[in-house]
Design a protein that fits this description.
2 copies of one chain form a homodimer.
Chain A lengths: L1 E5 L4 H13 L1 E3 L5 E3 L2 E6 L12 E5 L5 H7 L6 E4 L5 H6 L1 H20 L6 E7 L11 E2 L9 H18 L4 E7 L1 E2 L13 H10 L4 E3 L6 E5 L1 H13 L10 E3 L3 E4 H12 L1 H4 L2 E3 L3 H8 L5 E2 L2 H5 L7 H12 L3
Parallel strand pairs in A: 1-4, 1-6, 4-5, 6-7, 7-9, 8-16, 9-13, 10-12, 11-15
Antiparallel strand pairs in A: 2-3, 12-14
């Protein structure tokens, strides 16, 4: 089995790759479990921390370039995990780069999938940012898509393409609307949700963190561990488990930003939690405010997807996985 | 005021153009009523029945070609009515041509609009085909978009782009989800809904018509007269009349195909109505079956949009407008 992961140099792709290599087998479009023989990590930059495994192939190049895609997605590719994206804050600040990567590259990749030996499984990481405007609380699976930022718009378009191309038999697609992922390791990025990792990660490393939204702001979140499990569950689900949509609201937990800091206090103490500084940023607050914070997912749990138990456990998992203490 | 109509050689564009020329004035993005000075009809073919009016400019060229768009949509364009599309049956039969015209050309046009002297009004003719799958009856304005054919998918993507580019201030967009338009004059086309005109038009011209769906099939329909009025109402509506979406479910009437033929019988007699032959076509029936037949529009009527009174009146309007009797 040959698997391609886009955004392959990123943290999530790297975690996913390690998990897939460890697992060693996946179910293909025909429902057969097969051995993982090669895993292509495609990204615009080379991975900072390359995986040393003979099955891994790194391809570096522009995802919006059809020649790069053609090279990375060989004709015998069985599965594509499409994780590459320009994040929300950047897609809002630079409309063209968001369209180029989040829409054009997704389409180029889908078009390449049409030409493969057999229709591949295609796991697309969408986002709860596809929702916006007045919405019920919690948001049901069949809520309308009225995204209020360019990132969510581009993800919603990607979902429509994934579904239509699945319906046409070009791919066997699944669009996972991921919750905000926290705690991400590494540095802050241009995602409007970057603070949701920063306010835990930085204080635990002895550094002050700025929180740009109010403590009462609620978010729908999930740990990296659980996201990786859900990506694999989304991949493994048989086509017959889906009906008139391939979009899945991935289960998460609804947590207030103030509660997140309280959980940090409970897990790591006052000195750590006091490193969170409340410093309102209207540009970030405006984007985050358009995201629904609470969902009532049905399809995701029916496929076997899981959520974390509580935010303190999310912090503990970060400490174990990334700080190794 | 300079107006561009795409699909300018088509029946609807031609009706719209005549109505706009007669009206002579429209409201621009800033809310000022201005005199119509030039009206560009852009299409891949020249109009069969050119309008003789010094304000009309015909431009012939491929809508997916940015150079053609740039030429037709001059820098001082105030309004674009984007009517050009590959119809439902053709978009389903040929995925690539549907994507090229319904998605790529729409995007090229929107990108051109970003470069104009001022953000233009952009009236996009979407379709009730953006809906599909299990839906409430009647369908509310905020029903989810889960199109079940490529045409509806491409229109839904167009709506997402129109809204996002409106939100960014690039255009002042409005997406009108039109009911099935009947009775269209002329010849059958590759729209899956083509029969909804054919079963009235052909018998009135003494020709047998094949009806590919069952008499119990219900449809959401509107006469060309009323559609044109609604397109202009959609254009004239002030930006403040919209909230978190620019998509409008245009009011129509829900009518069974059997009732349509009964209305033809009442208006034109048995001999005419008996020219309708029930000849089931699974390919067309499959597409039509994915369209919701009944809506409960709120935003459209709030903007002043109208529906026809009943189907017999739709037939009478066709006889008056097109057969001149």
């Amino acid at each position: 089995m040959r698997i391609v992961i886009t955004g392959g140099a990123g943290f999530l792709a790297s975690r996913l790759a390690r998990k897939l290599l460890e697992r060693g087998r996946l179910t293909d479009t025909r429902g057969e479990e097969r051995e993982l023989r090669s895993l292509v990590l495609l990204d615009v930059v080379a991975p900072a921390d390359p995986i040393s495994d003979s099955r891994v192939i790194s391809v570096t190049g522009d995802l919006a370039d059809p020649a790069v895609i053609k090279h990375a997605v060989a004709r015998d590719t069985d599965t594509v995990f499409h994780l590459a994206a320009v994040v929300s804050g950047q897609a809002e600040a630079d409309f063209d780069i968001g369209m180029r990567v989040n829409l054009d590259a997704t389409r180029t990749l889908l078009e390449r999938c049409r030409t493969l030996a057999a229709p591949p499984k295609f796991v697309f990481t969408s986002s709860l940012a596809v929702f916006g405007g007045p919405l019920p609380d919690p948001v049901p699976d069949d809520a309308p898509l009225t995204p209020q930022a360019s990132y969510g718009t581009q993800k919603a378009i990607g979902e429509l393409l994934v579904y239509d191309m699945t319906r046409k038999g070009f791919i066997d697609g699944r669009s996972l609307r991921l919750p905000t992922i926290t705690v991400r390791p590494g540095k802050p990025n241009k995602a409007a949700s970057s603070f949701a990792s920063g306010i835990i990660r930085e204080p635990l490393s002895g550094v002050d963190a700025q929180c740009p939204v109010a403590p009462t702001t609620r978010m729908w979140v999930q740990s990296p561990r659980t996201v990786i499990d859900n990506l694999i569950i989304g991949h493994e689900a048989p086509a017959r488990a889906f009906a008139h949509t391939r979009s899945i609201n991935v289960p998460g937990i609804c947590v207030g930003v103030g509660e997140m800091v309280n959980a940090l206090r409970a897990v790591a103490g006052d000195a750590v939690a006091d490193r969170v500084k409340w410093n309102h940023d209207p540009a970030i607050d405006r984007i985050v405010a358009t995201w629904a914070p609470n969902f009532a997912p049905k399809l995701g749990p029916a496929l076997g997807m899981k959520s974390d138990s509580d935010f303190a456990n999310i912090i503990r998992a970060y400490i174990a996985d990334e700080l190794h203490r």
